[in-house]
């Protein structure tokens, strides 16, 4: 009677994880050992794969085939199982989110972006308003300064005109005083001449007598 080749099926999870909590990748290792095992490489299959892409499954299969050939002539099933557990640990990641969840996430990001842009727009507008207020205040101060300078110039011009008017008003009096002095001198001189003439005439009359 021909002895049937033994078959072994191992349910493997990432290293250190025994339950289903946080187990996102797992696989069943099916091994069929020939009668001459371990001198001949056993038949290896991966079943009930979860959490691995087709690319990763093919990668794991090729790695197991290489390892099995290297360990040919030795008991290798336990070592193959350990390698699979290590491989699962590297790829034990949560599944990608659903399309709806991705859409909601993108909408949230878009809302955050719009809110940030709106906040930036408000800040820019506030800065522009503050700048405009500073410019208006500066213009008001400049105009006030111009008004003060204009009033100062007008005051100086007014004082100069007042001084000239005062001098002009004083000139006729001075002229009258000078004219009066000349007239007095003329009158005095005339009186002297008159007296002198009378005296002359008196002397002349005396001599005539």
From TrEMBL:
Residues 1-91 form the RWD domain. InterPro entries: RNF25, RWD_dom, UBQ-conjugating_enzyme/RWD. GO terms for biological process: protein ubiquitination. GO terms for cellular component: nucleus. One of its GO terms (molecular function) is ubiquitin protein ligase activity. Residues 98-209 are annotated as: Disordered. Residues 162-176 have a biased composition (Polar residues). Residues 98-161 have a biased composition (Basic and acidic residues). Gene3D superfamilies: Ubiquitin Conjugating Enzyme. PANTHER family: E3 UBIQUITIN-PROTEIN LIGASE RNF25, RING FINGER PROTEIN 25. This is RWD domain-containing protein.
């Amino acid at each position: 009677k021909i002895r049937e080749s033994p078959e072994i099926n191992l349910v493997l999870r990432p290293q250190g994880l025994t339950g289903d909590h946080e187990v996102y990748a797992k696989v069943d290792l099916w091994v069929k050992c020939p009668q001459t095992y371990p001198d001949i490489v056993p038949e290896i299959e991966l079943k009930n794969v979860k959490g691995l892409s087709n690319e990763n499954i093919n990668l794991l299969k090729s790695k197991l085939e290489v390892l099995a050939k290297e360990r040919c002539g030795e008991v290798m099933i336990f070592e193959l199982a350990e390698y699979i557990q290590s491989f699962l640990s590297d790829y034990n990641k949560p599944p990608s989110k659903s399309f709806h969840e991705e859409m909601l996430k993108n909408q949230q990001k878009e809302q955050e972006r719009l809110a940030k842009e709106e906040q930036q727009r408000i800040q820019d507008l506030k800065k522009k308003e503050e700048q405009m207020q500073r410019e208006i205040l500066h213009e008001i101060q400049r105009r006030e300064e111009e008004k003060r300078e204009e009033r100062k110039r007008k005051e100086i011009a007014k004082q100069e005109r007042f001084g000239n008017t005062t001098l002009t008003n004083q000139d006729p009096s001075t002229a009258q005083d000078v004219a009066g002095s000349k007239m007095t001198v003329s009158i005095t001189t005339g009186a002297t001449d008159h007296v002198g003439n009378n005296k002359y005439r008196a002397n002349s009359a005396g001599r005539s007598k």
